[in-house]
Each structure stands twice: as C-alpha cells, then as structure tokens.
Specification:
With 290 residues, the protein is of the alpha+beta class. It contains ten helices and six strands, in the order αααααααβαββαβββα. The protein has two domains: 149 residues, Helix Hairpins (Orthogonal Bundle); 130 residues, 2-Layer Sandwich (Alpha-Beta Plaits). A four-stranded antiparallel β-sheet has the order 2-3-1-6, with helices on both faces. Strands 4-5 form a two-stranded antiparallel ribbon.
Length: 290
C-alpha cells in the first residue's frame, strides 16, 4: 500500500468495518481477517504477504487518531464529490472539473495552504518515520494466536473409542420400566459431563448400556461421579483397559499445518464419529452372542 495512492483506497472496506467503527471494533476486525490471511497460515499463497501488509497498513492509519482524522476528511470529501458528480449533467460536470483543476493549481503554487490529500500524505510519512507501537502489538497478538492454533492442530488426537464405558443397573425380571432407566433419562444424567458421541441401551440384556464421550475428561468424570437414580444407582466401568497415550513433541517446535492437512483432520473425525456408533452396536451384538 503506497502512500501516494492510499487516498484512493477504502481502508474501512479492507477491514470490513463502518466509518463510525470504534478503535476496539477496528482492532477486532483486523485480528479476525489477519488470522485468516496471515502468511504463516498461507505458505503457498504468493499474495498472502501483500494482503496481510495491506490489512496492517489500514489498521496503522485507522487506530492513529491524527492519521485517521486526515484520512476521514479525504474520504468524506471524495464521497461528497461522488454524490455531486452523480447529480451534475455532462456540461456542468466539465465546468466543475475545470474549476477544481484551477483550484488545485492555485493551491500548489502556495505551499502554506496544504490540500487535504497533502495533509494525509504528511500523516502517513510521520507514521513511517515513527513506527506504530499499536500496530506491532496487534501483529504480535495475531502471531501468538496463530502459533497456539497451529500447536493445537499438531497435538495428537485423542481416540474416544479407547474410553467406552459400560453402564449397569439392577432390573427385576418382571419390571417393565427397565429399572427406571431409558435413553432419555440416561442422556439427562450423563450429558452434563460433556458431548456424547453415542449411547446405546442393550435391546436384549436388561439393565445394560454402552456410552462413548467425545473427550477423555468427560469420560473420567462420568465414571467417577455419576450414580443415577438414588433408589437404583448406576455402575459405570471401562469397557476395555485404557492404553496410555504418549505425546511426542518435536524438538524443533510445532510445524505449520496446511489447509489441506486441516481439512483431512476434520474429514477423518467426521468419519470416525459415524463409525463409532456402528462399532458400539456391533460390540453389543457380540456381547449378546457370547
């Protein structure tokens, strides 16, 4: 973004904010867009650095009160001129342009009276000389957020199928209410611990069900704390011995994950979620056949 043509750009459109946006709103919009187009997240995009630089220059000007005032004055003048242009016919338009040209020529001969465009150029030069501490702070926050995101993507995924839980409760032979439990109230008891991937009540073996949570923390809390109905408590036990998952960290730190890698992770997790429901049903079937 060159200082010579910055007056021709709509900095508010670049950040997707209104001209009345507050400084906080401008910073928030910058972070949102910067996290998407940052060069570290788009290593294969040759234009990523240019786009990120454009966002940063827009932020630099709009969070500096003096520079923003100068830019807004130019922007409003251009908007007003645009409206006037639309209302003028071709003859009046030509007369107006001739008049504006003569005015600019008169101003250029007098260095004391600077145009709005010249004032904006002066503010941009000042920012380039002094640097922008606020801009550097915002760029640092974006960089840290991207590194945290990339670090999370590089962590090995936890397979919830390793922590399936078997649920049992007492049921009398002639009890048509299955001991007071059904899928609805089991979900009500258990969903407070976290997202449930699958919950299956055994259709043949009374007083028995299987559940799988989406997170290890939810699984562990359910096994430790859930008791169900006071007059007929639940017993929750791990279906299998849970292996210890070791997390290996790269000595060189987290590597960058491409959009293709991220898409592959998402698709894999979607397939796993669909497969787990079938796996639980198959396990129940095998248990009944034993």
């Amino acid at each position: 973004m060159n200082k010579k043509n910055i007056e021709d750009l709509d900095l508010y459109s670049i950040l997707d904010v209104k001209i009345t946006a507050t400084e906080a709103e401008i910073k928030k919009a910058y972070r949102k867009k910067a996290l998407i187009c940052h060069p570290d997240k788009n290593p294969d995009d040759s234009k990523a650095a240019e786009t990120f630089h454009e966002l940063s220059r827009a932020l630099e000007i709009l969070i500096d009160k003096s520079a923003r005032d100068a830019y807004d004055k130019v922007l409003r003048a251009k908007e007003a001129a645009k409206l006037r242009h639309q209302e003028l016919d071709s003859k009046r338009q030509k007369l107006k342009e001739d008049l504006e040209r003569r005015e600019r020529e008169a101003h250029s001969s007098n260095n004391v009276n600077l145009t709005d465009e010249q004032k904006l150029a002066a503010e941009i030069e000042r920012l380039q000389r002094e640097g922008s501490k606020l801009l550097l702070e915002e760029q640092k926050r974006v960089k840290e957020e991207i590194q945290r995101t990339l670090g999370r993507l590089n962590e090995p995924g936890w397979d919830s199928s390793l922590n399936r839980i078997k649920i049992k409760w007492n049921v009398d032979k002639n009890d048509s209410n299955n001991g007071g439990y059904n899928e609805s109230n089991l979900r009500r008891f258990l969903k407070k611990y976290g997202e449930i991937v699958a919950l299956i009540i055994s259709p043949k073996k009374r007083g028995s069900a299987l559940i799988e949570f989406a997170t290890k923390e939810a699984s562990e809390m359910a096994v430790e704390f859930e008791k169900g109905l006071p007059d007929n408590p639940l017993t929750l036990k791990w279906l299998n011995n849970r292996p210890i998952i070791s997390i290996k960290k790269d000595a060189n730190g987290p590597s960058l994950v491409s959009d293709r890698d991220y898409e592959s992770i998402v698709l894999t997790k979607m397939r796993q979620a669909a497969e787990r429901q079938k796996l639980i049903e198959d396990m129940l079937k095998e248990e009944h056949e034993k």
